[in-house]
Amino acid sequence: MKLSEEDQRLLDELCRQNNVSLAKVRKLLETVYDYEFKERRTGVYDALREILKSRPAAEG
């Protein structure tokens, strides 16, 4: 998923303000995007749940 520089800055700022992992939010957005145009979205909620339960990755 490609975000514009402005969108990336906004997402980064919002994640910092709310003490949320930018890496997790990006992964959640990418997962939803991957399922968006599939005929059947079976498994999307399980995939999102696994991301939310995962340990936060080190951000650099």
Walk me through this protein's architecture:
With 60 residues, this protein is mainly alpha-helical. 63% of the residues lie in helices and 0% in strands. It contains three helices and no strands. It has helices spanning 5-17, 22-36, 44-53. α2 (22-36) packs antiparallel against α3. It is flat and about 35 Å long. The two termini are 19 Å apart. The mean pLDDT is 90.
Provide the fold topology.
Layout: H1 5-17, H2 22-36, H3 44-53
Helix pairs in contact: 2-3
Distance between the termini: 19 Å
Structural classification = mainly alpha
Distinct helical segment count? 3
Range of helix content: 55-70%
Radius of gyration: 13 Å
Shape: flat
The biggest sheet amounts to:
none
What sequence of helices (H) and strands (E) makes up the elements? Answer: HHH
Unreliable residue runs: none
Strand content: under 5%
Q: Estimate the mean pLDDT confidence.
A: 90
Q: How many runs of DSSP E, i.e. beta strands?
A: 0
